[in-house]
Write a structure and sequence with these properties.
Shape: globular
Distance between the termini: 74 Å
Largest sheet: 9 strands, mixed
Number of domains: 1
Structural class: alpha/beta
Radius of gyration: 19 Å
Order of helices and strands: HEEHEHEHEEHEEEHEE
Helix content: 25-40%
CATH architecture: 3-Layer(aba) Sandwich
Number of strands: 11
CATH superfamily: Vaccinia Virus protein VP39
CATH class: Alpha Beta
Number of helices: 6
Strand content: 15-25%
């Protein structure tokens, strides 16, 4: 047994683990993946193959359902550690420009280091916005909120598991901002917890799809009430798929009303 070699390997591994997560990566099929502690999507996403394939499935949605092409400008809200971007790259689906925003600075720094450096058409931005669960010390959302992009800058706006734990005031603010940022003929895809015959908004509902843990784990919306928010921001619901997304969320496709 080569004790010095074993000690050396262990020392190198411990040194890697001691580095902040935004400076480390996991290698899977030759591609950099975020370390498990940056993957907040649930236990299944700790598995590298599952993580990548879940991103590929979203890439296929973007291309096959939302019409993503090689010249498309795509904005992802709540991009986290880059699951969708990694899915697009793994599937070799070209995009004109990808902008991802998130309130988690560590995740954004990881994406800049391991995605943007190799793929300059991918851009990642940190936003300072308060969220009771994920950033309680962030800046309170107001009607003056805007993202650092020009009007009509995007053909597709995509957000998965964002409105699923967002209060109504912030949902309204973001939806108005989507209308400003979306180019004519563009599309929005989002997921949310949506049901009929329930109160307009319920935070952490009991006996629902899962046991809620911690603040703002689930924000459940009554279907008609949520749709009225979209309509007030000049969006039409083009397609609604109840309960088919992560944890029983519903998929919602929006188009701007003329």
């Amino acid at each position: 047994m080569n004790i010095p070699a074993i000690v050396s390997r262990c020392t190198r591994r411990l040194a890697r683990l001691a580095r902040p997560p935004q400076t480390r990566c996991v290698r899977f099929e030759g591609r950099a993946l975020p370390p498990p502690e940056l993957r907040y999507c649930g236990a299944d996403f700790q598995d590298d193959a599952y993580f990548v394939q879940s991103g590929v499935r979203e890439a296929e949605r973007l291309r096959n359902v939302l019409g993503l092409g090689q010249a498309s400008r795509l904005l992802e809200i709540g991009c986290g550690c880059g699951r969708s971007a990694i899915g697009l790259l793994h599937a070799s689906y070209p995009v004109g420009r990808f902008d991802g925003v998130d309130i988690d600075g560590r995740a954004i720094e990881w994406c800049r280091r391991f995605i943007s450096r190799a793929h300059p058409q991918y851009h990642f931005w940190t936003i300072d916005a308060r969220h009771e669960r994920y950033k309680p010390n962030g800046r309170e959302m107001t009607t003056a909120f805007s993202l650092p992009f020009d009007p009509g800058a995007f053909d597709i706006i995509y957000l998965h598991s964002v409105f699923a734990n967002m209060i109504e005031k912030d949902v309204r603010i973001y939806t108005r901002e989507f209308r400003r940022l979306l180019a004519p003929g563009g599309a929005v895809f989002l997921t949310a917890f949506v049901e009929e015959g329930v109160p307009q908004v319920t935070i952490n509902p009991e006996n629902y799809v899962k046991k809620c843990q911690g603040p703002l784990n689930i924000a459940r919306y009554e279907k008609g009430h949520l749709f009225s928010i979209f309509e007030s921001c000049a969006f039409a619901v083009e397609r609604f798929e109840h309960g088919k997304e992560l944890d029983g969320q519903s998929g919602i496709y929006l188009r701007p009303r003329s």
